[in-house]
Amino acid sequence: MNHHGLGRGMAAFFPEEEKLEIEVVEEIALDQLRPNPYQPRKVFDEAALDELAQSIEKNGIFQPILVRKSSVFGYEIIAGERRFRASQKLKKETVPCIVRQLADEEMMQIAVLENLQREDLTPLEEAQSYDTLMKQLNITQEQLAQRLGKSRSYIANYLRLLSLPPAIQEMVTNKELAVGKARAVLGLKSEKEQLAFAKKIIAEQWNAREVEQHLKEWQEKALSKKQKEQKARSIYEEKIENELRHKFQIPVELKRKGKKVELLFADDSDFATFLDQLEIGEGG
């Protein structure tokens, strides 16, 4: 997957922070360090860690590990867990560190941002990182996108992955199902349908165009079944609803009450995606 580095970096999140004083690098015993409890990365590529370990063995650690003093024992890693793990592989006794005093929220933000600037987060880890930042900073998708130098649709598309059933999220993490194809699955309403469709994509090895074609067929089939279970609705209304689902690849429901027409979305991410397709920003 081709991830893009942060456009503006940590300065966009800490604009009021003045230039830091010169920080002292300390050699700290490896057994005094423990991973960041707020670490968004859940999957570590062992082959990449082996490669990093070889580089450290040959060239040393150029960038010290950022840590803070733990209230329980030793130090907690703020940023640099890959360097820590690679050093463990080498059975190093000490590693260069910079000690900072940070509150839990600041520690979480730096850990998330440091990982987002790398290119090996899984799609779900990246999505969870965006969600965490939005909640902790109490900001919108648009505001987060501006701070990271990304488009709102990019953020919205990743956040939509968090709406997938756990089984399908695992398919994405294991690289069985591409992100774009996984998002298409959300065009189906029930979790049962989504899982069945995802398995079919993998089994049949459908390309993006085939996924789109079959999704429309599944949506029409599901719609036909729904028509039998419910009272007859206007064919014109059904056609509009089906076209909206197909065009925007999001579960959307059309309701008509007299002269009033309502569009119902599953969540804010689907609504944001809809607005992006219409090229309507939050600012109008």
From TrEMBL:
Protein name: Chromosome or plasmid partitioning protein ParB / stage 0 sporulation protein J
Protein location: Cytoplasm, Nucleoid
Keywords: Chromosome partition, DNA-binding
InterPro entries: Chromosome_partition/occlusion, Cro/C1-type_HTH, HTH_ParB/Spo0J, ParB/RepB/Spo0J, ParB/Sulfiredoxin_sf, ParB_N
Similarity comment text for this entry: Belongs to the ParB family.
UniProt KW DNA-binding keyword: yes
UniProt-listed GO biological process terms: chromosome segregation; positive regulation of sporulation resulting in formation of a cellular spore
Keyword Ribonucleoprotein: no
Domain HTH cro/C1-type, residue spans: 133-160
Major location (coarse): cytoplasm
Gene Ontology MF terms: DNA binding
Species assigned in the record: Catellicoccus marimammalium M35/04/3
Entry GO terms, CC: chromosome; nucleoid
